[in-house]
Write a structure and sequence with these properties.
By secondary structure, this protein is an alpha+beta fold. The protein has helices spanning 2-9, 14-63, 65-69, 73-84, 123-126, 176-212; strands at 89-96, 101-106, 131-135, 139-147, 165-174. It has a 5-stranded antiparallel sheet. A hairpin with a 4-residue loop joins strand 1 (89-96) and strand 2 (101-106).
């Protein structure tokens, strides 16, 4: 392979060989820069979307308190509709303390857990705060416990208030926005990098011609 490349390059003058090597070097550098920039942007967007999913799930847990206290599917419907209004959220579920489903809405998606058991029965053993419970190639699954909210400060409270666990909420968010944003960033980086590379090549050629003209 190396001999074929050398034999092919021997058909060109030294000046043309130099231009070919510089052109390839600049375009490879532009490609590497685009890939590296897209990867860093993808990680940043992914982190932001996960943080957004955690906040939505936590907010949904706060709004589900009355639904679990009164075992009311109607109140649960209001909480799930508020969560479903956010972009990317495709399914929400509310479970009581006995892991019985109180209400669910949205598309059922199979999101494999990183743990051995991703069923609601395992949440009581491992979920004491809002967390990313599982992740697949297309979705994230967030889980949050629902506790009773502490009452307003009162002089009649003689003991510290201990929140009571009422149940759990689960939220599935699609990665489609992550994929779309990553594609847009990659295309923009490629276009910018290769445009810059072409401008640099034209500038180098212009300067090289001006420098070699007296010779």
């Amino acid at each position: 392979m190396k001999r074929l490349i050398n034999k092919y390059l021997q058909n060109f003058t030294f000046e043309r060989q130099l231009r070919i090597m510089v052109t390839l070097g600049i375009f490879l550098l532009a490609l590497f820069s685009s890939v590296a920039g897209s990867w860093l942007s993808n990680e940043r967007v992914r982190s932001d979307l996960i943080e957004q999913g955690l906040r939505i799930t936590e907010q949904m847990a706060h709004q589900s308190e009355l639904a679990l206290i009164y075992n009311s599917a109607e109140n649960a419907k209001g909480a799930t509709q508020a969560a479903m209004s956010f972009p990317g959220v495709i399914r929400v579920e509310i479970y009581d303390i006995n892991n019985s489903e109180l209400f669910s809405e949205g598309k059922a998606r199979n999101v494999e857990s990183s743990e051995d058991d991703s069923s609601p029965n395992s949440w009581t053993a491992k979920t004491s705060e809002t967390m990313l419970e599982a992740e697949s190639s297309t979705d994230w699954k967030f889980v949050a416990p629902v506790y009773t909210q502490p009452p307003e400060d009162s002089p009649f409270l003689l003991e510290p208030y201990v929140p009571e666990l009422l149940g759990y909420v689960s939220l599935v968010m699609s990665k489609e926005s992550l994929f779309q944003t990553t594609r847009d960033i990659f295309i923009a980086n490629i276009a910018t990098s290769f445009t810059f590379a072409v401008v640099m090549l034209l500038l180098i050629r212009f300067l090289a011609d001006r420098m070699t003209l007296p010779l």
